[in-house]
UniProtKB/TrEMBL annotation:
It comes from Aeromonas sobria. GO terms for molecular function: ATP binding; ligase activity; metal ion binding. Keywords: ATP-binding, Ligase, Nucleotide-binding. Residues 121-324 form the ATP-grasp domain. This is ATP-grasp domain-containing protein.
């Protein structure tokens, strides 16, 4: 009887970066086991024949009961060393499973503390690491606010930028009930928005926004890349984050160094001793650094590829090293520069034509299109991804960056049926 040793991947609807995770596991000589929820649309995963086992549940979201049943069915010769999932909604499930398997991970309480935006904010405020105050959004509080442009609303526990917007975009809190119900019935978000609506309102954080990709081992945090968000705008009740540049272009090196130190202090305050984190923070001269969110997972879009291009490290590899109690040894930064743009579609409309533009002033490293002509986009209040593209801007003169970034907004040209 042959023994098998591997890692369990929790996949949401046959997505969730299974292919790059499988490649990392194969390089370590480990088998790849995948437990996935049922896909909400027709998908044939290209990695199907590369994994050791794939099981798909009947529901659109995984539960701990599914995982426990799966573990109980594994043959005795199979050893799982750890569990991993890049899907935000499964982060507590991942932590709980790693507790069963004995892998090096955060406990469920720590994960929940980070994902609960009210708890996280109040924790940092208590430790004087945040000047921002947050409260549950209730009618009585809402009607006492005179200047709503000075506040921001978001789900207490959510996903991506859904339901995140400046408070003056809202007429009455009752509007959030319909928004929440849309999210509850959105099969792509299955398992994330449940029970009663719960939103928070907090002081508006001003300044430019940055993403810190950090790895923590034995209580020591190391930031391996920082992206600056540009071209952000509000669409309905969702903030669309259209582009990122790495390293940042709008901040001085000393301020960026202070940001890295600040992020490490916040993680320490929250009792974080291990794991990979995608941390969003803002900086303004008058306020200094403020945390927006601390996500105990890898960043989305091209964060993985952009970080690898800039810093020469693979975030998934670092995360697996952490879970498997391997030494964390990030390579010296390559100091290359990268830029990526994400393209969003219009809710409920049908795509009639898609073209992509060529001839930009920087080499295109990769591009992905998630839709095709004739597709009708879902009628939903959230990000609807059309595609994304990644460029190497290492040789692009800094004074040309603004014009270049603006030109890439037309890389994918989309037309809709009338």
């Amino acid at each position: 009887m042959n023994s098998r040793t591997g890692v369990l991947i929790l996949s949401h609807q046959l997505l969730s970066m299974v292919a790059p995770l499988q490649q990392q596991l194969a390089a370590r000589g480990l088998d790849c086991y995948v437990l996935s929820s049922r896909p909400s649309r027709a998908i044939t995963p290209p990695w199907r024949d590369l994994v050791s086992q794939l099981e798909i549940t009947d529901d659109y979201a995984l539960t701990m009961k599914d995982i426990e049943a799966y573990l109980a069915r594994l043959p005795g010769e199979t050893t799982l060393l750890a569990c991993i999932s890049v899907w935000d909604g499964y982060r507590e499930l991942m932590a709980q499973t790693n507790g069963i398997l004995g892998a090096t991970d955060l406990d469920v309480t720590s994960v929940t503390r980070l994902r609960d935006k009210l708890t996280m904010r109040r924790w940092l405020h208590r430790d004087k690491l945040s000047q921002v105050q947050a409260h549950p959004l209730i009618d009585a509080l809402w009607h006492r606010i005179s200047d709503r442009s000075a506040f921001f609303i978001k789900p207490r526990t959510g996903l991506a930028s859904f339901g995140a917007f400046r408070a003056d975009k809202l007429d009455q809190p009752s509007q959030l009930e319909e928004l929440w119900q849309q999210a509850c019935t959105d099969q792509a978000y299955a398992g994330v928005f449940q029970e009663e609506p719960e939103f928070i309102i907090e002081d508006l954080i001003r300044g430019s926004e940055y993403c810190f990709e950090a790895i923590v081992a034995k209580g020591q945090a190391q930031v391996v890349a920082v992206h600056e968000k540009i071209d952000m705008h509000q669409q309905g009740f969702t903030v669309l984050e259209s582009a990122c540049v790495c390293p940042p272009v709008s901040i001085q090196p000393v301020q960026l160094a202070e940001g890295k130190t600040f992020v490490a202090r916040c993680l320490a305050s929250l009792g974080i001793t291990t794991g990979l984190f995608h941390i969003e923070a803002k900086f303004a001269e008058e306020q200094g650094w403020e945390i927006v969110e601390i996500n105990p997972r890898i960043g989305g879009a091209y964060i993985l590829e952009s970080t690898r291009h800039h810093a020469g490290v693979n975030l998934l590899s670092l995360w697996l090293d952490s879970l498997l109690s391997q030494p964390i040894q990030p390579a010296p930064p390559l100091n290359r520069r990268s830029f990526f743009r994400v393209f969003f579609g219009q809710s409920g409309r049908t795509l009639s034509r898609i073209q992509h533009q060529s001839g930009n002033e920087a080499p295109l490293l990769d591009q992905r299109l998630f839709v095709q002509e004739g597709d009708r986009l879902p009628e939903i209040e959230r990000e609807i991804f059309i595609g994304q593209a990644l460029w190497d801007i290492s040789a692009l003169p800094h004074h040309k960056f603004s014009d270049f970034a603006a030109s890439t907004a037309h890389h994918f040209q989309v037309e809709y049926q009338a």
